[in-house]
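Troubleshooting entry. The earlier prediction with NAI gave an output that would not parse, so I re-checked the input for stray whitespace and re-submitted. Clean input:
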Amino acid sequence: MIVGNDPTGRIQRVVVVGGSLAGVAAAEELRQRGFGGDVALVGDEALLPYDRPPLSKAVLAGEREVTETLLRPSEWYDEQQIDLTLGDAAVDLDVGGRTVGLASGARVPFEGLVIATGAAPIALPGAPPLDGVHTLRTAADAEAIRERLATARNVVIVGGGFIGAEVAATAAGHDCTVTILEALGAPMERVIGTTVAELCADLHRGHGVAVRTGALVTRLHGESAVRAVALDDGTNLDADLVIIGIGVRPSVGWLSNSGLAIADGVLCDSCCRTGAGGIVAAGDVARWEHPTLGSVRIEHWENASRQGQSAARALLGEPEPYGPVPYVWSDQYDRKIQIVGDPSEADEMTLVDGSYEELRFVALYGRAGRLVGALAMNRSRPLRAARSLLADGVSFADATEAFNSTEVKSASRRPGPTGVQ
Ligand code: NAI
């Protein structure tokens, strides 16, 4: 097996570091492409790799257990001859010696390496370690929050991004007050722009969630357990459960002495290859040269899966530029929000389908005359059309016109399988 960018030749042993979606996708792709050598997967969590999207929704709501959301059943790893090391974090990488050091002290040799360590939540700056203050990234986090939620009276969520919005929607079903504190003008405003972000704020308010924007937390009060959240305008909000969802940082600490280039993620070329031969990266941890978007790091589910596959192919000597149209979805209450492309920093936007009042629509986003993104709320089919327009790199005007054409309209009127069109 030829190592993608390694002039030294053949690999017989691949180690995947990171036991989540990107890592599992990479391991699976290696086998699907006929790689017959050893594949080892190392993860810091003790559980079998599981799916993260349900954590902020069904798992938090108590509707599903994490064991019901495994990415693959345990037998699959045996069948695929993927050697699992779980509950042991990678702590260093020796590129020259071709080994990964683990917290247990073990050193794992590799010929090819997939870096898929994901990202970790950012802590609230200066906040003391009080009981009742949580971030949400892992199954253990979700289970701990779920337990607290059962008895919580006042839930305060710091950050109105994807985590904050989804947790608020789940918590709103409980017998407690729920407040979102968002630093910007509206939840998810940075990603989806003011118009739709304000609709989302209203969606939360309609479900009894208080949304405070331009809110800056100055202090968490409490002795051992959190009691209140202080804001810069002098307000003190009672709180017995605080969830911090103010973003994540790529998990690159273990690579700090490796010599790999790191800058808000592991730097990769367009084919997910780092500068070191036989070492690739994928998922939240990877910052790569997207063929059309430039240097990007994408933190979404679909990207983790597809980039894991792409990185594996590069390792097997089949590199190809990885240039997806980004896609993310978020379920909040009975609304499904889907975003393709990158609507952040758009300088124009137009509604092309449905209506804002019904919270059932598609909006297109443009920048400098080009289509850069689209957002659909409870509409799926027209978004597919937007995705192909984005892949074609069309102008904003042409995209708007295409949406007004009979073809996109009639496709969008056919009901989808779940009632979401
Ligand atoms: P995020 O980046 O989506 O949102 C963070 C939010 O917190 C932003 O709205 C920001 O303006 C706000 N913020 C930042 N600092 C603040 C402060 N000090 N006080 C108040 N607000 C502040 O990050 P989030 O929600 O933590 O999600 C983490 C990761 O998980 C993201 O990569 C996200 O894409 C991913 N995720 C994706 C989901 C999905 O695809 N549906 C669901 C849940 C999480």
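This one parsed fine. The longest helix spans residues 189-206.
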